[in-house]
Specification:
43% helix; alpha+beta; twelve-stranded mixed beta sheet; 29 helices
């Protein structure tokens, strides 16, 4: 022990340098492994916290999985909107009763039906305050999603004369009567000195209607057959608003909202997502709600009618805006306006009036939906279903949508006299992505009998709204792992390119009223599963929904808490049961899934980003985190151990003569081994004690929660590293014979070569002592190789995990540990190379003194050392880059895919960085060259 203490005291400089190396390596290793562990724990915590979405298993009808989903492992976010039936009620009930199923929530899409209302536009500021009668026209333009559409012109007639509304003398309640001058051409249309100023415009727009005028009143109107008119004809949607007042005028634009009616199990929905919390008025559906029939004796109309209970969303979930130019029409003599509006030529007269633009107005289409009176404004006589969107992969790996043919006018005709459907949304003339199918009902509700071809079908029921709900009140789920909840919210879609974002004004793309559009609104009207039969079997033509009405089943598995082994086993057991019982059904395990943005080309000029769902993301993340952490730990341990081994070897080499002297005076190899290891152990203990304090301070500074416990580990780590690193150098010291150890190492003379430059001498020095050169280059090569492998590992981890929202969050957390590992590997490699160069400078002190004595300047000596360092660094760096790339190739092609060029470039940059580090670290040894005393050194030699 005394010998060890004496040696450490006598060689304080070398001991302190070695202690500093052990201190850096042990502290860095402990902090880095702690950071890796903390990062891993945070990652696992993030995954477990966000792994579970609204449901764990999704069951879909046979053949519902698209080719893109099948090959990519993704689930389309709008899968439900194109699925109408495919799972039988019996299959649903059996799945519900399976062991392990906590909640089974079915969705049976019935079809789209229309909710009608108007949106009001105030045009008062555009009136002529002096006119007694006047007409304003608005020329509207509808903007919805990525499209702009021409809408039908709308009119308002404002008169200061009183208007009479209501049923008078058999006139219809909707009629609006006004006194006016009577002339011969309009005399047949005058009733008690009043003209019906709105009826003719709104009832006939073609002047082809035939009127039976033999009766004194209008009750025998024979309407024109409009079956040959397209429902998209804007002429059918124009309206004349007749109002009386002193300057207040509004135009009511008729609008129709396609509403998806779906059947659910209210109890299951409440347990799954908390549907019961969303009621804003009335009440929520219950499991006891069923269709109820009112007999003729209890119906004021004396007819038998069946009512289906529903709840209606407060939100339209379709977006659109109307902007319109307002025109003041040149009507001529105001006194003649009642007579011109009160006859069948009213429509032609108004439409051909010249208008002077006086301003612009705008209105949100959602206004009409929010104030709709659903009891009277829902048309349940016609339904429409839509097909799924068809995707294909582009050459660049993105998705592209296959367009569909334009809608045919036959889709929009009623089952009564084949008349066009009223107020068809203009967006249906836009680009089509889905196939739209019409399902006319029997239209025999309350008639007692149905047409012959409807025999065997049920009368179409009426809609009974029992409450309104707001999907915004649903409890939120983690956005990092949310599964598609199309029952309540549309997919999140944003513009993927500048042109699309500009068209959308930087806002997300919302569903519009185009049934064939890319995004269709989620169900905004819900009914119970017991109502399915009354709705579906009232259609004139049977469909798949008659036998298999359920569109999807969302399952929550009992006992699942995340993606731990037990939870995964429970989910897989339930999924396995379903696959075994119904092999044709599509079963997707959604627990641990995460939204994955996909770029979708809607057209040649429009691209959007949509969140598809990547299945099994959480499990892949956990496996990747475990693998990456293990490799990081191993690499950092190897780098630290070899760095210390190199330093210990250099220390033993510098004591070659001293060890030889000990052997000459009788020291055995075992005693030399104990001496070397004892010195290293003592240095390790001292460095570990200081490192523990340093690690604690740094850990607290870095915010590590277990900084105290981790800092205690620095002491045993330092002792272990120092002892392990000294084993080989100490063993080599015992292999030296006494005379061999005391004899200075002299390289055998070879053929002399002329040296003409400082750089040439530096290269010759590196070649002359190849062992020392390889020793110095080895540490740097190890650092660069470790950097290359760590970079490849990080890129591979990010490639495996990133892409989904959960994966992106994990990658962001993991970067700190990765970058610290890379920095440590390079720093330790550079430190090892510098250590060897410094040792070389000490051993060659006499050579340098001779050069000084023969006239070499300080600058030339400094360049010699710098050139040797640069050559050593380039040799080690390039060798390490090649070794790292070979290791990456061995790891697998999956790591290289898409990253080979980046990894190669980074390896070369690491070589240059290591060279720069070595050059910077040589500043101190170069300055010491000026302190060389040639005479003293040569005399001692």
């Amino acid at each position: 022990m005394a010998m060890i203490i004496g040696q450490l005291r006598r060689r304080r400089g070398r001991a302190m340098a070695l202690a500093a190396g052990i201190l850096v390596a042990a502290t860095s290793f402990t902090l880095l492994t702690s950071t890796v562990h903390t990062s891993q724990a945070a990652t696992v915590g993030t995954v477990r916290k966000n792994a579970r979405s609204a449901y764990d298993v999704l069951v879909r009808p046979p053949d519902s999985q698209t080719d893109v989903e099948r090959h990519s492992g993704l689930v389309a976010p709008n899968f439900l909107s194109g699925t109408f039936g495919g799972i039988t009620v019996q299959q649903y009930r059996r799945i519900r009763s399976m062991g392990g199923v906590e909640v089974a929530a079915p969705v049976a899409n019935i079809g789209y039906l229309m909710v009608y209302n108007t949106v009001s536009v105030d045009v008062s500021r555009f009136l002529d305050s002096k006119a007694s009668r006047q007409i304003l026209r608005i020329v509207p333009k509808l903007t919805a999603g990525l499209g702009t559409y021409r809408a039908a012109d709308q009119y308002v007639y404002l008169t200061r004369s009183p208007l009479t509304s209501g049923k008078q003398h058999g006139v219809f309640e909707s009629d609006t009567l006004e006194k006016g001058a009577v002339d011969k051409s309009t005399r047949p249309y005058v009733m008690n000195g009043k003209y019906n100023v709105c009826f003719y415009f709104n009832g006939d727009k073609t002047e082809k209607t035939k009127w039976n005028l033999e009766l004194p009143m209008m009750e025998s109107i024979i309407a024109e057959d409009l079956s040959d008119r397209s429902a998209f004809d804007p002429d059918l949607h124009s309206r004349l608003n007749c109002q009386s007042g002193q300057g207040k005028a509004t135009i009511d634009i008729p609008v129709a909202y396609p509403v998806l009616l779906s059947a659910v199990d209210p109890g299951a929905e409440d347990r799954l997502v908390g549907l019961g919390r969303t009621v804003t008025s009335g009440r929520m559906l219950t499991e006891h709600d069923k269709p109820h029939t009112v007999p003729p004796s209890k119906n004021p109309d004396g007819q038998k009618e069946t009512f289906v209970p529903v709840v209606l969303s407060n939100r339209p979930l379709t977006a659109g805006k109307i902007s319109a130019t307002v025109e003041l029409l040149d009507t001529g003599d105001p006194a003649k306006l009642p007579s011109r509006l009160g006859n069948p030529t009213a429509s032609s007269f108004v439409k051909h009036l010249h208008g002077t633009p006086v301003g612009r107005v705008g209105v949100d289409l959602g206004q009409g939906y929010r104030k709709a009176v659903p009891t009277y404004g829902v048309d349940a006589t016609n339904y429409w279903t839509v097909g799924p969107v068809t995707y294909r992969r582009t050459s660049g790996g993105d998705l592209a949508v296959q367009p569909q043919a334009p809608q045919k006018p036959g889709l929009w005709v009623t089952n009564l006299n084949r008349q066009p459907v009223a107020d068809v949304p203009e967006e249906n003339t836009g680009r089509q992505y889905r196939k739209v199918i019409a399902h006319p009902s029997t239209f025999c509700s309350g008639l007692g009998v149905c047409e012959k071809q409807d025999y065997g079908r049920l009368p179409n029921p009426l809609i009974h709204v029992v409450g309104r709900f707001d999907t915004g009140r649903l409890p939120g789920f983690s956005p990092l792992s949310e599964a598609p909840l199309e029952t309540y919210q549309p997919p999140q879609v944003t513009g993927a390119d500048k042109a699309t974002r500009t068209t959308l004004h930087g806002k997300p793309l919302q569903p519009d009223r185009n049934l064939g559009g890319y995004l269709t609104p989620p169900p905004t009207m819900l009914t119970t599963m017991d109502s399915v039969t009354a709705l579906i079997k009232s259609r004139r033509t049977p469909s798949l929904q008659d036998a298999a009405p359920v569109s999807a089943i969302r399952l929550r598995v009992a006992g699942v808490t995340g993606v731990d082994a037990a939870s995964r086993a429970r989910v897989n057991a339930v999924a396995g049961q379903i696959r075994t019982a119904f092999p044709k059904l599509q079963v997707d395990v959604t627990v641990g899934s995460s939204p994955t943005p996909q770029t979708v080309a809607l057209s040649a000029t429009a691209q959007v980003t949509e969140r598809w769902v990547d299945k099994g993301v959480a499990l892949r993340i956990l496996k990747a985190v475990d693998t990456k952490s293990a490799v990081l730990f191993t690499l950092v341990l190897v780098v630290c151990a070899l760095f210390l081994g190199q330093a210990a070897l250099a220390s033993v080499r510098s004591r070659r003569t001293e060890i030889g002297t000990l052997r000459c005076v009788g020291w055995s190899g075992a005693e030399v081994l104990r001496l070397v290891l004892g010195e290293l152990a003592a240095i390790g203990l001292a460095a570990g004690a200081v490192g523990a304090v340093l690690a604690y301070g740094l850990g607290r500074l870095l915010g590590q929660p277990d900084a105290g416990a981790r800092s205690v580990l620095v002491l045993p780590v330092a002792l272990l590293l120092a002892t392990a690193a000294g084993l080989i150098p100490a063993w080599l010291a015992t292999r030296l014979g006494p005379m061999q150890a005391v004899r200075p190492p002299v390289t055998a003379a070879r053929r002399a070569r002329p040296v003409r430059s400082v750089a040439g001498l530096a290269a010759l020095n590196l070649l002359r002592v190849r062992g020392r050169t390889l020793l110095g280059a080895a540490g740097l090569a190890l650092g660069v190789a470790a950097f290359t492998v760590l970079l490849a590992l990080t890129l591979a981890f990010q490639g495996e995990v990133a892409g989904s929202l959960l994966g992106n969050a994990v990658v962001a957390r993991a970067r700190t540990a990765d970058y610290l590992s890379v920095a440590l590997s390079l720093a330790l490699g550079a430190a090892g190379a510098v250590d060897v160069l410094v040792l070389s400078q000490r051993e060659r002190a006499a050579d340098l003194a001779v050069l000084r004595a023969t006239g070499w300047t300080n600058r030339e000596l400094a360049l010699l050392t710098l050139y040797e360092g640069i050559g050593l660094a380039l040799l080690g760096g390039l060798a390490g880059a090649v070794a790292g790339l070979v290791a990456v190739v061995v790891l697998g092609q999956g790591v290289l895919h898409g990253h080979l060029l980046a990894i190669t470039g980074a390896a070369l940059l690491a070589t240059l960085a290591a060279t720069a580090l070595v050059g910077a670290a040589l500043t101190v040894p170069i300055r010491r060259l000026s302190q060389i005393a040639p005479a003293h050194l040569l005399a001692a030699d």
